[in-house]
Design a protein that fits this description.
The protein is an all-alpha fold. Helix content is 70%, strand content 0%.
Length: 117
Amino acid sequence: MQLPPKYRRAYRYMIEHLDCAGLSVREVADHLGVSERALQLTFRAHLGLTPAELMQRCRMERIRDDLLREDQTALSVFETAARWGIRNRSTLANSYRKYFRETPTQTLARRDTALAA
């Protein structure tokens, strides 16, 4: 399902600002000129996720993509997460495991094994 045109702007805004740790549903709603509730209801109805869930999911995907890149060996897991607005170690560990069923460290180990082969 697709978002209504007005709410696609909110989606684009979120994606463009994922690296901002302070990005919030309120900020996205204010940018669009709607209430937080309207934003949440529309996202849930059309995407099956709230804006906060979508932000978290997209951030975790960006973190994982960065961890799997061969040229990212110099950054730590936490530095990589911080680049995408995640600055809480517990949030990182729990969310990452929820989406990928492994820890960020396990992802790095798999990448390193693949690079060594």
